Amino acid sequence: MNHARNDRGQRQPCLLHVGAARRRVLTPLNDDATSWMNTRGRGGETEEDDEVSNCCEGDILILLDSSGSIANYEFARMLDFTAKLLRPFSLGRGHVRIGLLQVGTKPNLEFGLDEHTNQYNLQKALLSITHLQGNTNTEMALRVAQRLLTNTDVPKVLLWLTDGVELGEVDEPMAQLKAQGVSVLIVSSVHGNFHVLQRAVSPPLESHLYSVDIENIDVITEKLREAIIRIIRAERLRAVDVTSHSAVLQWRPVLSALSGYYELWYKAVGKTHAEERRVIPGESSSMELTKLQPETTYSAFLRPESNKRLFNTLTVTFTTLAGVLSPAVVSVHDSGSGKTQVSWGPLQPALVRGYRVEYGAIPSGTVHTVIVQSHQNFTVLTELEPGIEYLVTVSALYKNGKERAMSVKACSQEAPAPAPAALPALDDLQLTTAKHDEVQVEWKARQQGLRGFWLSWEKGNTYDSTSTFLPSSSHSTLLTHVAPTSRVCVSPIYSSGRGDGLCCTTEK
């Protein structure tokens, strides 16, 4: 095996990297790390792995000082420390993502947050990192870190390992990182600029800032890991698939079948009912609650029980759905030609984020969609063809991602019958007085479709109204016993109706 001597003249086993474009140096490989990798490569697990592996969800970016001010031995010790620190975590999305960014003349991203999803590959990558040397351009590296730590859904940690020499202008980029919600933790040698590091680190200082001699760096491993776990611990109890009578509780498993069990209890808030209790096996990560009451708020509590360590009690509060879910009824109302109003109920804005109304002609017409807000229970369907049957479907879009739909059939109004064409009016009407009570009446009319004429006038001194029907061949007639100043009217009669007539008044 190749050997190298450290700064104190001690022989160390090492890996020799050959053929790289940048300068490579000999990196000591810790015997404990090699042994662990051999064990893990054979599928081995440790008690420490069981206790921590499923505890957390978050992103950790290691900012590793790889400048020329770091001695080769110090650099190797920092890598070995980092490998031990991160060894117990489960990796990947939904667990812990880990990336490593080296600080040198230019930043060098050794591996991104999504590159390693198991510990064997991560440990192998950590122990294969080479020393960049060069200048300490921390400011540029922090700008890269800002772009990497952008996931807003999980806690984010920047762990900075440095000798604290020539730190540069780091106050502004560190402040911006912390404004992004990133927790900054720092491990520095005893020679570091403590005042700059104190400004850069996230509180509390006693658990997030460590100044330690490189020979004794292992003594802070447990304390630093606990500080990271406090930031990214995924202690969450969730209620999902909530219905009117049931709900499913989910949690991140922190126990195994042999390490303990869970105690679960729940009850309705503000009710006098006795609480329900369950004992759940340690390998479980969910439990369905049944026989719940509709529209009732429940509080549930879950406590992991183990003889290895104490766990916090998790809690969640949820409200069951109404016994009758919307839409339970859908009604259609005529609103005029080409449109129809559809309404539904009951309204449940606390549960529903909106409604989708779809309608199309039966059997295969184009489907139209209308989106309605959760506080509204009606809409008007437009552009309907007259006399057509439509299928109307109202879907409630629930906040939990589920949907509930109800369909009805609706018939649009028939098109109104066209108005009949106007009938020809009488063309002309003339009155001629023959004697004091006789009047000669003459008129003109169009002959097409003509059936006859309707004549009306006032008779004698009684002014009684008199009328008569004359055939279509008649164009005049003599009226007798006509009242003075009588009103004489003639209207043409057609097979389809009565046309507009003309009226004249006789002279005295």
- The number of E-state strands comes to 31
Largest sheet geometry: 6 strands, mixed
Strand order of the largest sheet: 6-5-4-7-8-9
Low-pLDDT segments: 1-29, 41-51
Question: How would you sum up the global shape?
Answer: elongated
Proportion of helical residues:
10-25%
Helix count, DSSP H or I runs of 4 or more residues: 9
Provide the structure class. Answer: alpha+beta
Mean pLDDT score: 84
Defining key terms:
508 residues, alpha+beta, 37% strand, disordered N terminus, 5-stranded antiparallel beta sheet, elongated, 16% helix, 6-stranded mixed beta sheet
Structural account:
16% of the residues lie in helices and 37% in strands. It has 508 residues and is of the alpha+beta class. The protein has a 6-stranded mixed beta sheet, sandwiched between helices. Strands 26, 27, 29, 30 and 31 form a 5-stranded antiparallel beta sheet that branches. The chain has a 4-stranded antiparallel beta sheet with strand order 13-12-15-16, with no helix packed on it. Strand 1 and strand 2 form a beta hairpin. Helix 1 packs antiparallel against helix 4, helix 3 crosses helix 9 and helix 5 runs parallel beside helix 6. The protein is elongated. The N terminus is likely disordered.
Can you lay out the helices and strands and say which pair or pack?
Layout: E1 3-5, E2 11-15, E3 27-28, H1 31-41, H2 47-52, E4 58-65, H3 72-86, E5 96-103, E6 108-111, H4 119-126, H5 138-148, E7 156-162, H6 171-179, E8 182-188, H7 194-200, H8 205-208, E9 209-211, H9 221-232, E10 237-240, E11 247-251, E12 261-268, E13 276-281, E14 286-289, E15 297-305, E16 314-319, E17 329-334, E18 340-345, E19 352-361, E20 368-372, E21 378-381, E22 389-398, E23 403-411, E24 428-435, E25 438-444, E26 450-459, E27 464-471, E28 476-479, E29 487-494, E30 497-498, E31 502-505
Parallel strand pairs: 4-5, 4-7, 7-8, 8-9
Antiparallel strand pairs: 1-2, 2-3, 5-6, 10-11, 11-14, 12-13, 12-15, 15-16, 17-18, 18-21, 19-20, 19-22, 22-23, 24-25, 25-28, 26-27, 26-29, 29-30, 29-31
